[in-house]
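Project outcomes to date are best conveyed with an example. Our students and postdoctoral researchers have been running inverse folding experiments weekly, and each run begins with a structure described purely in tokens. The record below, which covers 342 residues, was selected by the lab manager from last quarter's runs and is presented without edits.
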């Protein structure tokens, strides 16, 4: 079966196919193609029929004839190449021709019917005008326009909540209020002067009124709802502004801290507060000034509570005598008295 093996290899290479491509064309495995070409196995009749149909070669020729020796068989021309026509003859060498004979062969003399080209008159070039040099212009004075004002900065206000002054005498349900952020966040803080206190008591719950109040920024405070009040005579330092953070529930009021309270029939006051709501339903208000008495206010009358977080004053406090200095003076007096007695 060596003829079949040689013919198979010859046909595959004749059509420029690899073993893998050849195997796919005839529907067998690549390993089978290698076995057939290396004479380790013989193709069956089905494979021979497929090859016969694919390459236009009879099965008998595949088995008995060496196709490599048949060079001009039209049926063995590759599938993807056109057959060479038998009418095309082999090129024959021709004798060299002279240049004059080639010129006589392709030169066509002009006929009388064709008009001869006439020369086109060329107009003389136009005179070029000399360039006009303008004298340099002095620089125009800079135009001064009114400075463009930057867009107004609209301050952002933290929302306020209504103070919870409800207490029925029983155990209160304490709701944890969200803690302020630790990171400082500058925001607009409205402030109320002493001349605006009466108007503020009537309109403190109106957002439009609060937004019309003058404001400032204090960058050292954490995020929260703040309000500033001009201090009155009940505060230790004159010409001061108290910056308070809003307290939303009565049970968040801590004993002994300074607060600004807005209450009915009382107005706006600054006091040190003691929470007695669970005992009496009141808040005990105490001033740091000796001449201002301590009194109680019902929790129902309290409208707003602001815990003082900071204050600033335009007047520096007067120097005070320290206790150490007083002890020193007393000791000096004792020594002088002892010397007098001696």
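After processing, the design step wrote out the following sequence:
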């Amino acid at each position: 079966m060596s003829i079949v093996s040689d013919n198979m290899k010859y046909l595959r290479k004749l059509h420029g196919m690899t073993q893998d491509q050849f195997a796919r064309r005839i529907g067998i495995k690549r390993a089978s193609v290698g076995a057939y070409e290396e004479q380790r196995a013989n193709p069956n009749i089905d494979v021979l029929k497929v090859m016969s149909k694919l390459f236009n070669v009879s099965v008998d020729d595949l088995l008995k004839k060496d196709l490599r020796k048949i060079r001009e068989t039209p049926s063995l021309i590759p599938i993807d190449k056109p057959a060479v026509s038998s009418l095309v003859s082999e090129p024959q060498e021709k004798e060299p021709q002279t240049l004059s004979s080639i010129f006589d062969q392709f030169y066509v003399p002009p006929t009388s019917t064709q008009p001869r080209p006439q020369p086109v008159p060329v107009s003389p070039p136009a005179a070029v005008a000399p360039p006009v040099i303008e004298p340099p212009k002095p620089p125009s004075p800079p135009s001064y326009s009114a400075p463009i004002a930057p867009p107004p900065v609209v301050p952002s206000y933290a929302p306020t909540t209504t103070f919870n002054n409800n207490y029925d005498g029983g155990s209160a349900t304490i709701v944890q209020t969200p803690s302020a952020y630790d990171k400082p966040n500058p925001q607009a803080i409205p402030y109320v002067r002493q001349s605006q206190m009466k108007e503020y008591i009537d309109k403190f719950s109106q957002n439009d009124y609060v937004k019309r109040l003058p404001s400032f920024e204090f960058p050292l405070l954490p995020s929260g709802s703040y309000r500033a009040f001009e201090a009155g005579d009940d505060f230790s330092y004159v010409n001061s502004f108290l910056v308070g953070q809003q307290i939303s529930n009565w049970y968040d009021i801590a004993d002994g801290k300074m607060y600004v309270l807005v209450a009915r029939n009382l107005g706006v006051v600054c006091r040190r507060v003691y929470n007695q709501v669970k005992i009496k339903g009141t808040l005990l208000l105490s001033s740091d000034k000796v001449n201002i008495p301590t009194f109680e206010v019902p929790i129902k009358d309290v409208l707003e509570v602001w815990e003082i977080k900071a204050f600033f004053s335009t007047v520096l406090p007067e120097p005070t005598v320290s206790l150490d200095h007083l002890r020193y003076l007393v000791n000096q007096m004792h020594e002088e008295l002892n010397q007098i007695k001696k």
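The chain has nine helices and nine strands. The domain at 156-342 is CATH 2.10.109.10 (Umud Fragment, subunit A). The training component of this project remains on track.
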